[in-house]
Specification:
The complex is a heterodimer of chains A (221) and B (221).
Chain A: E1 5-9, H1 14-25, E2 31-34, H2 42-47, E3 56-59, E4 62-65, H3 67-77, H4 91-117, H5 120-141, H6 154-159, H7 166-173, H8 177-180, H9 182-192, H10 195-198, H11 204-220
Parallel strand pairs in A: 1-2
Antiparallel strand pairs in A: 1-3, 3-4
Chain B: E1 6-10, H1 15-26, E2 32-35, H2 43-48, E3 57-60, E4 63-66, H3 68-78, H4 90-116, H5 119-140, H6 153-162, H7 165-172, H8 176-179, H9 181-191, H10 194-197, H11 203-216
Parallel strand pairs in B: 1-2
Antiparallel strand pairs in B: 1-3, 3-4
Helix pairs in contact in B: 1-3, 1-6, 4-5, 4-6, 7-11
Chain lengths: 221, 221
């Protein structure tokens, strides 16, 4: 099956991590091709001509783009590959799972980028917003082991890659996530005990170094 | 169906709410539309969407569903038998979701900038807007609808934005039909359907609304 499934990947991308986790959860073999984002391959440009971004999942030669769309696709194509589906079967619960995954994209990603990427007042405002966002997510988690309830699910897959940003966020923003959101940090530890997650996520310090390099490059321009 | 209670928190000019109105009309679902004050948000809206405090919100038997794409997918699952919006094939579903997301990201953002900007910035936005519409026209191809023989997910997602074309052309001083004749033919075809024409605002009304917004935002040439 591996020759039928290719993931155009980038090790540090939280969006690509989502796809790796989903495929690992379902025990699906695939070929991962690391892209050089400063010199994009002709395959990437052909498979995602609109955005020219990773991740792209190529299944039997056909591309699927956008990380949450890819995770949903994986869940639909291989519904029986895992003891449980990533998305709930009840339409209302499914809508709720998608709502919080979308929240990660709309809130965590943009404010996170400014916490590690910006300085001064912009950074301060982003930090304040990030803490509010994390607390809002913690509220949604409540006392459940996962956002999906008893099972690791779609929202968990959407959010856990941003755990790789925690060291960068705390160092650049000068705050402690465990102090602000202890239950959320407990959830990250719980997720990291899953092999699908721990093998799909790079080390936080390596990500911090990568992000600081990006920040320096951007500031140099 | 008699015991179903369907309420839509809406605003007449909102493109995202327009998608939901078209979808419900296509499926022949009766619902109560509650027009919201976008400046002074009502208690029901704040209760039903405490996270984003935005419309549209679909309230089905007392339970809220937020975010237009999530609402459309929910509607399609709850009432699958009439006018299905998404195809059955997972790859085709992923492609439909991709274009719906493209519309929400690119067409929405660029469309707004046309009336919000002026001078060189406006010219750059117009160029990018037309390129985005051309991409969509390419996706439509020679099909009568994006969904094929019938209205589908992408049609419903794009139609409300097409109500703003006249205003954008007047304010931007350009013609969409010149570069995208098939797309304009598609809008005419869709507007012949009652489910569409009765659910969406008149283009002249939107133009007057845009003129009002420009005054409010102090955008003068």
């Amino acid at each position: 099956m591996a020759d039928e499934l290719v993931l155009l990947d980038f090790w540090h991308s939280p969006f690509a991590m989502r796809v790796r986790i989903a495929l690992a959860e379902k025990g699906i073999e695939y070929e991962s091709r690391e892209e050089d984002l400063s010199n994009k391959s002709s395959l990437l440009l052909k498979m995602n001509p609109v955005y020219k971004q990773i991740p792209v999942l190529i299944h039997r030669g056909r591309p699927v783009c956008e990380s949450l769309i890819i995770v949903e696709y994986i869940d639909e194509v291989w519904p029986h590959k895992s003891p449980l589906r990533l998305l709930p079967s009840s339409p209302y619960d499914k809508a709720n799972a998608m709502f919080w995954a979308d929240y990660v994209d709309k809130k965590i990603y943009p404010s996170g980028k400014l916490v590690w990427g910006a300085t001064g007042e912009v950074q301060e405002a982003a930090k304040k917003e990030m803490i509010e966002n994390l607390k809002e997510l913690e509220g949604e988690l409540g006392d459940k082991p996962y956002f999906g309830g008893e099972s690791f699910g779609f929202t968990d897959v959407a959010l856990i890659p941003f755990y790789t940003w925690f060291y960068a966020l705390e160092t650049c923003g000068d705050f402690s996530i465990i102090e602000e959101c202890p239950k959320l940090v407990a959830w990250t530890k719980r997720c990291m005990q899953r092999e699908s997650v721990s093998k799909s996520l790079p080390d936080q310090y390596k990500v911090y170094c990568f992000l600081m390099e990006l920040k320096n490059k951007f500031e140099a321009k | 169906m008699e015991n179903e209670e369907v309420v839509l928190l809406s605003f007449w000019a909102c493109t995202f709410a327009g998608k939901v109105r078209v979808a419900l009309a296509e499926k022949g679902i009766e619902y109560k539309s509650m027009e919201q004050d976008m400046v002074t948000k009502g208690d029901l809206l704040l209760k039903m969407n405490p996270v984003h405090k935005k419309i549209p919100v679909l309230i089905h038997n007392g339970k809220p569903i937020c975010e237009s794409q999530i609402i459309l997918q929910y509607i399609d699952e709850i009432w699958p038998h009439k006018s299905p919006l998404l195809p059955l094939d997972p790859h085709q579903r992923a492609v439909a979701r991709f274009w719906a997301d493209f519309i929400d990201t690119k067409i929405c953002e660029l469309g707004k900038k046309i009336w919000k900007t002026k001078g060189e910035e406006k010219e750059a936005v117009k160029k990018e807007f037309m390129e985005s519409l051309k991409l969509l026209e390419g996706e439509l191809g020679d099909k009568p609808y994006f969904g094929g023989e019938n209205l589908g997910y992408v049609d419903v997602s794009l139609l409300p934005f097409s109500c703003w074309f006249y205003a954008q052309e007047k304010v931007g001083d350009f013609s969409i039909e010149t570069d995208c004749p098939k797309l304009i033919a598609w809008t005419t075809r869709c507007m012949e359907k009652d489910s569409v024409s009765r659910s969406l605002p008149d283009q002249q009304k939107i133009y007057r609304f845009v003129l009002g917004l420009r005054k409010l935002f102090g955008v003068e040439e």
